[in-house]
Structures are given as C-alpha cells and as structure tokens.
C-alpha cells in the first residue's frame, strides 16, 4: 500500500492535495456552467424560438474534443487550470440548459397564475416559484455534468496540467508503476460516486414535498 500512495516528486502534490485540486478543477466549471445556464434557460423559456439555436450551439461545443479545446486555449492561458476548466464549463451547458428549461416548463400553469395574482413579478416568480419546483430536473442535470467533469479533468494531463489525478496515469507509464494508474482510476471513480450521492442528498433536502421511497407503507 505504501507504493499505492507514494507519488513521484514531479507531481508536486501529496495524494490528498491531488484529490483537492482535481475536485476544484472539476466542480468550479460545473458551478460556472450553472450560473451561466440559469439566465440562458430563462430566456429560452420566455422566448421559445431561442431554444433550438441555443441547444444547437451547446451541442456543437460539446462535440469539440476536449484535447482540441485545451490546445487552442493554451495560447491564451498556458498550461494552467483555466485551460482545463473553461472547456468543462462549456460542456456542462449542453446538460444544464435543457435540464433547467424542462424543469421550469414543468411548472403547472395554475401555479404561475397564482403567483402572478399574488403580485410576483417575472424575476421573483422565476426565483421563488419556477426554480424551486424545477429543482429535481436541475439536480438531475447537475449529477450528469458533475460526474462527467470529474472524469474529463484527467484529460488535462495531456497538456501537462499539474494538479489533476490524471497526471498519475502518465507517471504510471513513465515510472513503470501500474499501482499509480489503479490509484488514479479508483480515486476518480470514488469521487464521482461521492459527488453523485451528495447531489442526491441535496435534492432530498431541497424538495421535502416530494414522496420518498417507502413512504406511506
């Protein structure tokens, strides 16, 4: 087990340091993607004709290979975390925008009418009525985007980005230490499972009105 966690000095971080940096490089883009997706999704709901081109643009961005994205951004940000995080934030839009749009559109018309009758303006109605009801759909999108981001961060090793667990895959080959590759793959998988479980818990806490499994038995 000592070799499992004994990292080469070129990684410049301890095992826990690599885990922390990997999570930062994975989760910050998802948060940024969520903040960008919220107003875009509202525009798509308000002006339905915008939705198809927005969906088309996000799909095209998602179709661009991550490595190609990294290579282009190196000229602007160098071999840094930003070069890795910008594409991941853009990739998250293809999942988050449709999730938010579908969630907001699922709000019953009578609920919106009641909120309007109570004097709720468009912004207040969106923040206090539509988004809370859309939480399950939004969390579902976040689960996909988060797990995908945690996995894709490891590709950053191909541009020499220090800090991600993917660098252990390169060192496993360079130093002929397969234990490092096993460590990297298992850790990334565990992080994905834990992040997914945390988002499920967040959904449960934010939607106390939803039925739970086994309720009423």
- Strand proportion, as a percent range, falls in under 5%
Shape: elongated
User: What is the succession of H and E elements?
Assistant: HHHHHHHHHH
Structural category is: mainly alpha
What is the CATH C-level name?
Answer: Mainly Alpha
Largest sheet: none
CATH superfamily: MetI-like
Rg (C-alpha, Å): 20 Å
CATH topology: MetI-like fold
Portion of residues within helices: over 70%
- The total count of strands amounts to 0
Output the number of helix runs: 10
Mean pLDDT: 84
Annotated CATH architecture: Orthogonal Bundle
| Uncertain stretches of 5 or more adjacent residues | none
**Total domain count:** 1
InterPro entries: MetI-like, MetI-like_sf
Family: Belongs to the binding-protein-dependent transport system permease family.
Subcellular location: Cell membrane
GO cellular component, one term: plasma membrane
């Amino acid at each position: 087990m000592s070799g499992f966690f004994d990292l080469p000095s070129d990684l410049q971080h301890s095992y826990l340091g690599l885990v922390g940096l990997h999570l930062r490089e994975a989760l910050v883009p998802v948060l940024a993607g969520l903040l960008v997706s919220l107003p875009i999704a509202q525009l798509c709901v308000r002006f339905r004709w915008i939705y198809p081109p927005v969906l088309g643009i996000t799909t095209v961005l998602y179709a661009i290979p991550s490595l190609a994205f990294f290579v282009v951004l190196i000229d602007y940000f160098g071999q840094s975390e930003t070069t890795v995080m910008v594409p991941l934030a853009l990739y998250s839009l293809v999942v988050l925008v449709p999730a938010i749009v579908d969630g907001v559109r699922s709000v019953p018309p009578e609920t919106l009418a009641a909120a309007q009758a109570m004097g709720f303006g468009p912004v207040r109605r969106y923040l206090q009525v539509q988004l809370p009801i859309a939480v399950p759909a939004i969390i579902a999108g976040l689960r996909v985007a988060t797990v995908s981001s945690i996995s894709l961060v490891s590709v950053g090793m191909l541009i020499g980005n220090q800090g991600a667990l993917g660098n252990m895959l390169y060192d496993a080959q360079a130093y002929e230490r397969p234990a490092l590759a096993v460590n990297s793959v298992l850790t990334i998988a565990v992080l994905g499972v834990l992040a997914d479980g945390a988002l499920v818990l967040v959904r449960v806490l934010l939607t106390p009105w939803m039925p739970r499994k086994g309720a009423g038995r």
